[in-house]
């Protein structure tokens, strides 16, 4: 039988010690439901140390990434206050093992997500939208994992940065959220480019996906939650030079940045 708590503790220890572990699937039989139980147990460990859940994130939201992993559905992870870095602030890279960074779109809920409501009403729960950065960091060796591994590892969630929030209704009156150019730049040089359309065809589709996944796996997404909708480009390695700056720009929506902290940063 799968020992959920032992697996959660193993991944938690890898994260805290910054020592990557072999994939769980190499030694255990863990199905997808059990993987979400491991994820949830890992979040309970973090809550027990004083962290607060502030929202959720989706992974595998681009067709390219899903095909690469051979999966047909998104994955859901949980984000906590300890993962958040202020816009423009320095992040301590030594917190991570082999971090990568990706540009995203974030939503802020003004009301609880109601699984029984029609899709339009679920969208009405979203109050604000912002450009965002997500730092992902696999707790597995060589950043290699099977689907069950990465779900158990809270979908590689490690850090996030939220840019300026804007009212969603005002943005939608002005812009097509499904077709905004996205650029990820490191020290002013483009490192990756894409479109918000690369996020599930339209980042707003993330809301229904979150409702579906959160209902299936018993995750609460109350008013005030942040939703990281998914990446608009492939992730790039988080630079390791103190003072290096990573900026995500989403046309019409704004920019968000983080710098690498350290003795020179
Ligand atoms: O946020 C993401 O899209 C990452 C999902 C997990 C897969 C990965 O670590 O690349
Ligand atoms: Mg992501």
TrEMBL record:
Transmembrane segments: none
Protein name, UniProt field: 2-keto-4-pentenoate hydratase
Domain Fumarylacetoacetase-like C-terminal: 78-260
PANTHER family: 2-KETO-4-PENTENOATE HYDRATASE (PTHR30143:SF0), ACID HYDRATASE (PTHR30143)
Keyword annotations of the record: Lyase
Species annotation: Nocardioides ginsengisoli
Gene3D superfamilies recorded: Fumarylacetoacetase-like, C-terminal domain (3.90.850.10)
First and last residue of the signal peptide: none
InterPro entries for this protein: Fumarylacetoacetase-like_C, Fumarylacetoacetase_C_sf, Hydratase-Decarb/MhpD_sf
Lineage, top ranks: Bacteria, Bacillati, Actinomycetota, Actinomycetes, Propionibacteriales
